[in-house]
């Protein structure tokens, strides 16, 4: 073998040995693993401007719990560098999850109160009587329903009309897009509006001397790119509608997005609406344990309306209902 060729082979072998020895060191193994852990964290933390990122970031809360658990695991294993990296990621995810769910603006004066229920009944759900009995027991003043099929429309009217004499039911060729509102208070200017192949109900709730605008909606679930664009267009329309109407507002429904989604953040900021949540309050899907659920149902309110509480209520659907108590500012 030629000396030059042997020298080249020895150099390559030396490089391989050095790389092997570098990988064998405990601190370097930790650096590599920490680098791999940063990749999904980066994708979770950047703004969700694309379809795939939106779906991936829907489970930000669950990812936060995983990184938190890993930080504890690495401490137990005495891998403190890894524990530090994981805790840093956990903290950043915690900030992103909790940021949109801050303490809501409260009204300390005003004589008019309102209890509001928001519930996606699930079109194929056949527990009509159980659902209606539970709603009557909860005794809200105003209710918004989604996925109101033809059968649900008949059952809701027959079961609730006595207690809620003011209502509007909109059926849709797509049963998942049927929608309805029921109120103990009179309503005015009630209209059904069809945009982006969805049904919406708009109007005013007349409470004493106050007239509160409402918009009940159900965006399409963004399971495909076209439905993602459809949902975003729906939110853009809702944003413009709210901004054009004078007075206080309630916007409620199944938004099919999470509070930290960039589209949802922009919608609330531009329309000057506040999420009623005071904690995570996940609503979907009910067959998963709490830590595997995500918050996609909302009651949003304008600054002249204060929210005292918002709670999730398990009824019969794949969604939990949410119910909030509100106080309306005087004129």
Short description:
The protein is of the alpha+beta class and 331 residues long. It contains 9 helices and 12 strands. It is 41% helix and 25% strand.
**Termini separation (Å)?**
97 Å
CATH third-level topology of the largest domain: Deoxyribonuclease I, Chain A
Strand order of the largest sheet: 3-4-2-1-12-11
Radius of gyration: 26 Å
Instruction: Tell me the number of structural domains.
Output: 2
Gross CATH architecture of the largest domain: 4-Layer Sandwich
Walk me through this protein's architecture:
The chain is α+β, with helices and mostly antiparallel strands and 331 residues long. The protein folds into two domains: 3-98, no CATH class; 112-328, Endonuclease/exonuclease/phosphatase (Deoxyribonuclease I, Chain A). The protein is 41% helix and 25% strand. The protein is built from nine helices and twelve strands. It has helices at 3-24, 26-45, 51-57, 60-76, 80-98, 128-138, 150-160, 225-244, 262-271; strands at residues 112-120, 142-146, 166-170, 179-183, 187-195, 198-207, 210-218, 249-254, 274-275, 297-301, 305-313, 321-328. A six-stranded mixed beta sheet has the order 3-4-2-1-12-11, covered by helices on one side. A six-stranded mixed beta sheet has the order 5-6-7-8-10-9, covered by helices on one side. Helix 6 (128-138) crosses helix 7. 38% of the residues are buried. The mean pLDDT is 88.
């Amino acid at each position: 073998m030629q000396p030059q060729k042997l020298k080249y082979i020895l150099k390559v072998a030396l490089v391989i040995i050095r790389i092997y020895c570098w990988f064998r060191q405990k601190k370097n193994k930790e650096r590599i693993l920490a680098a791999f852990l940063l990749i999904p964290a980066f994708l979770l933390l950047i703004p969700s401007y694309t379809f795939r990122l939106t779906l991936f970031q829907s489970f930000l809360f669950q990812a936060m719990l995983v990184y938190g658990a890993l930080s504890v695991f690495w401490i137990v294993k005495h891998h403190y560098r890894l524990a530090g990296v994981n805790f840093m990621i956990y903290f950043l995810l915690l900030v992103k999850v909790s940021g949109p769910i801050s303490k809501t603006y409260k009204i300390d004066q005003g004589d008019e109160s309102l209890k509001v229920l928001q519930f996606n009944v699930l079109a194929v759900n056949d527990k009509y009587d159980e659902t209606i009995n539970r709603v009557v027991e909860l005794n809200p003043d105003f209710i918004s329903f989604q996925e109101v099929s033809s059968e649900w429309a008949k059952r809701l009217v027959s079961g609730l009309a006595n207690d809620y004499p003011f209502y509007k039911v909109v059926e849709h060729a797509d049963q998942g897009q049927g929608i309805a509102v029921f109120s103990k208070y009179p309503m005015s200017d009630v209209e059904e509006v069809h945009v982006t192949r969805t049904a919406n109900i708009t109007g005013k709730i007349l409470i004493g001397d106050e007239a509160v605008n409402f918009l009940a909606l159900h965006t399409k679930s963004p399971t495909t790119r076209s439905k993602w664009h459809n949902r975003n267009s729906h939110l853009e329309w809702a944003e413009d509608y709210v901004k054009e109407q004078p007075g206080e507002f309630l916007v409620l429904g199944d938004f099919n997005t999470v509070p930290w989604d960039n589209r949802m953040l922009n919608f609330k900021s531009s329309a000057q609406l506040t999420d009623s949540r005071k904690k995570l309050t996940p609503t979907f899907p009910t067959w998963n344990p709490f830590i595997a659920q995500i918050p996609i149902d909302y009651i949003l309110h304008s600054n002249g309306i204060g929210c005292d509480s918002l709670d999730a209520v398990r009824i019969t659907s794949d969604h939990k209902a949410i119910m909030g108590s509100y106080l309306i500012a005087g004129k």
